[in-house]
Amino acid sequence: MGVTQEQIRAVLERLALPDGGTLVSRDMLRALRIEGGKVSFVIEAPSPEIAKLMEPLRKAAEAAVLSLEGVEKVSAALTAHAPQQPAPSLKVGGHPKPQAEPLKPAGVKRILAVASGKGGVGKSTVSSNLAVALAKQGRKVGLLDADIYGPSQPRMMGAKGRPASPDGKTIEPLHAHGVTLMSIGFMLEEGKAVVWRGPMLMGALQQMLGQVNWGELDVLIVDLPPGTGDVQLTLCTKAELSGAIVVSTPQDVALLDARKAMDMFSTLKTPVLGLIENMSFFTCPDCGGEHHIFGHGGVAAEAEALGLPLLGALPIDLETRLAGDSGTPVAAGEGPMARAYARIAEGLIGGGMA
Ligand SMILES: Nc1ncnc2c1ncn2[C@@H]1O[C@H](COP(=O)(O)OP(=O)(O)OP(=O)(O)O)[C@@H](O)[C@H]1O
């Protein structure tokens, strides 16, 4: 027989809060769920400030429940309590269940997906920089990191922390570099692998679109996982995507996969707005010569063949990589790469795409 709610409550009763009482006696335990060997629950703090101080307790609570026989995995999320609200039933962390919410947030004018066929071509880098470049031009921009298996936007945008859910229903996004930001990475522990089944994935996506307080946005950029899997399928079929931008390197193998992604969008009737060639060339700092490390002209030729615009061609650039690693996208600065992203943003705005 599996673990019971009573056993979990009993073990949590033994964890004393610094200012007296326990999670159970102080009625801070919410949304306790048991699915096989997996347990999840929400700890509701009296205020966002106190929630921040309760992180050690959250960890201790996870460890205590994990010590119970029959428990394989525990996920505890912290939220802050809003007075006069009913007790939340939303599970902010862990493995969310599919919700019935629509996938188009009310205040969002356009949803643009940034996709790639192959991993590692710079899709997340382009997404964050494009979001920042658009925000610098006065657009209200959101960035949704839907790369469920490898969320990199928290690092690239330099944003940390768990989004609060003061009313237990709405999830408050984070803000960085003028962009409203949500990533599944905010709800996971850094460095931990995610193994989710399809319905869980869908639930996470639906939560991030339907329950995040995106506010009024001109454009919501969605950084998709690479390839043509469940996430892409769900977004294209259920969210009202205005279009997709496909990022590729000029390398043959990347282009081949980019073609597959474009085929998928075409089958799902999502317009591809254009292509961006990333890591187009490398300018040698010593001789000033342009080197086409991943090939030359492939993405431009592909765009021409398909009658699609080439929205930009971005070089291999050390500053871009360092900026991404440091949490301040290169587009936030004033250098040549910031200008290159500004031109792409201008093109999107001019074309009525953002
Ligand atoms: N133009 C560029 N010049 C130099 N480095 C770059 C450039 N574009 C991306 N990178 C670097 O390449 C690495 C992969 O980029 P990124 O994570 O954006 O790719 P991705 O396509 O989103 O990958 P994944 O498939 O893992 O999500 C990162 O370290 C990033 O900083």
Structure description:
It is a single chain. This protein has 354 residues and is α/β, with parallel strands linked by helices. The chain is 33% helix and 21% strand. The chain has helices at 5-13, 48-53, 55-66, 123-136, 153-156, 198-210, 230-238, 252-267, 298-306, 318-326, 336-350; strands at 29-35, 38-45, 73-80, 108-115, 141-145, 174-176, 179-183, 217-223, 243-248, 272-278, 282-283, 290-291, 310-314. An 8-stranded mixed sheet has the order 6-7-5-8-4-9-10-13, with helices on both faces. Helix 4 crosses helix 11 (336-350). The longest helix has 16 residues, at 252-267. The model is unreliable at 82-102 (pLDDT under 50). It binds adenosine-5'-triphosphate. InterPro entries: FSCA_dom_sf, MIP18-like, Mrp-like_CS, Mrp/NBP35_ATP-bd, NUBPL-like, P-loop_NTPase, YlxH/NBP35.
